[in-house]
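Name: EAL domain-containing protein
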Amino acid sequence: MTMPIANLRFLVVDDHEFQRAMLKRMLQSLGAQHIYEAADGIEALDILRREDRCFDIILSDLEMPEMDGMEFIRHLGELTTGVSVILISALEPSLIASVETMTQAYGINLLGAMEKPILMPQLEALISLHKPCQTKQKQSCVAQEFTLKEIIDGLRSNEFEAFFQPKCELATGHITGAEALARWRHPEKGIIPPAAFIKPMEDNGLIDDLTWIMLRKAVAFRPMWGDISRKAGTLSVNLSTQSLGEVDMAGRIIEIVHTEKLEPEQIILEVTESAAATDVGKVLENLSRLRMRGFGLSIDDYGTGYSSMQQLMRIAFTELKIDRSFVADAIKHESARVILESSLNMARKLKMKTVAEGVETQPDWDLLCELGCECAQGYFIAKPMEADAFADWIQDWERAV
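Structure predicted for EAL domain-containing protein:
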């Protein structure tokens, strides 16, 4: 729910008095009644630290003396105020795009960036994106922490489950499969997302346990799909880097799949770009053996690592999964679109299936169709859901397409 602009508190940060006055007039013409000004980042931080100055939206220039906009944004992220930010600059678009990414990395709710001269419709459109306390809510969710003992108890009590997010064929709309994603069904706190437990598991040598739990539960559920969808055949499961280094990993996976009477061709094993960074021999032996048996291999979050090309040469991948950051930014930034298009072209030449993660809007979907991506996954199609709900969801979706 958006808040009426008259109720919002604005802070305009710009070292040019004329620019501040112009922004103030534009905000007033849109109905804003609570507008404060700062000539630089130092003054802005001083205003923000006062107890009686809680702001909803900050409009900040990037080029300022003493403390520029980038340093101000870093300090703003440390304050964790829950404020939204609109960037203003006359700098080149590629540099503004970098600062946008930096702003998001600091955990700030970025509404967007405007190039000078500022246009009223653009300003109004960005303000309309503000949602009260959006950033605070997100931070409180991610900040939820559990002790190592709680996590171990959860593993022993079989509280970790597989949720399923569908993958959709862009050309036809039909479901081609789903990815199994880990969720913790906490007895007191409900469904816990992976951000709260994946890193502690990795840091304490528990991620391997989760990998095998997820594989067994996901594979056991796959036969329940039946023939609901003519193409809903593949189940994607993530493999941890630790598991890939185990000499018997391939054998264990083959045994689990055989026990559930599934064909290896129905399973896609997703690995990150850094999968073969260590224990190269063991990793390549495991993945080569699985590929030889008919399992699909997907390079996950493609584009976020430092050795993408090398990994494509080392491992016989069948699927390239493009990271959500390129999908989300491709609409706004030419550089992201070029990388996305180049990745899709490369995958086609290597005869790899392409899947785009993080598809959240109709424009995302339309652009991927235009660029020739084969499959999509993201909230625009469906959020991850429990096993029973997934089977029902497929039926409803397939009737609609």
